[in-house]
Amino acid sequence: MLVNPLKNCFCTYWPFNLLKNMLVILTLDSKLALTATLMFKLRMLLAAICLLFVLSCSKEIISCFTPPEPTFIRLLDRNGVDLLDPSNPNGYKLSATSMYYMENGGKVLSPVKLDSLPNGNMYYLNTEISWNADGGREFFLTLSPTITDKIYLRYDAVSERKCSFFKLLEFKYNDVVYTKKKITGNLEAYEIVR
């Protein structure tokens, strides 16, 4: 079981330093000849700080974690022809394909690879963009030197019943909302018609 005692916590390192300093004072009380009233006040202050520290930190036990699903994208032309099929002369080539998002004014590349069904008759882009879409983010899919499409993906991290998982809220491709389609078995992908 994973214990995360500092989740949603107001705690920082300063309570630890304050507690350490107060303990030093309390252990040296005979050397400092502190009065009983001052010692009582220091102990009460120490108890209040400890209580504040304990109550401000929620101790949530996370017993399971489900990562976000990978994002699979199929690209088809208006006639349903697979634009990712390497044998399609009018299709996109993986060597010219890349995906990135913007962060702190710079491009951050995101892995993208071409996968196919075992029989090789259907191709799709396999991306890991879901990991970077907590709260929503724009991604850019470069298909050729002159074509870059925009993808908006939004997942929210959810914790309930001692489990953490990601909930898909929105997927847009060039500002059009898409939903996943079942391709085969457990495989679901976004089918984009270009």
Main β-sheet description: 7 strands, mixed
Mean pLDDT: 79
Query: What percent strand?
Result: 35-45%
Shape: elongated
Count of individual helical segments: 3
Structure class: alpha+beta
For the secondary structure, the number of strands is 14
Low-confidence stretches: 1-14
Chain oligomer state: single chain
What's the number of domains? 2
Bin the helical content: 10-25%
Query: How far apart are the termini?
Result: 46 Å
Kindly summarize this structure in a few lines.
With 194 residues, the chain is an alpha+beta fold. It has three helices and 14 strands.
Topology of this structure?
Blueprint: E1 2-4, H1 14-27, H2 29-32, H3 36-56, E2 60-62, E3 64-65, E4 71-76, E5 98-103, E6 106-110, E7 112-116, E8 123-127, E9 137-144, E10 147-160, E11 163-173, E12 176-177, E13 181-184, E14 187-193
Parallel strand pairs: 3-11, 4-14
Antiparallel strand pairs: 1-2, 4-8, 5-6, 5-9, 7-8, 9-10, 10-11, 11-12, 13-14
Question: What keywords describe this structure?
Answer:
single chain, 194 residues, alpha+beta, 5-stranded mixed beta sheet, 14 strands, elongated
How would you describe what is shown here?
The chain folds into two domains: 2-62; 66-193, no CATH class. Helix content is 20%, strand content 42%. The chain contains three helices and 14 strands. Strands 3, 5, 6, 9, 10, 11 and 12 form a seven-stranded mixed β-sheet that branches. The protein has a five-stranded mixed β-sheet with strand order 7-8-4-14-13, with no helix packed on it. A two-stranded antiparallel sheet has the order 1-2. Strand 9 (137-144) and strand 10 form a beta hairpin. Residues 1-14 have low confidence and may be disordered.
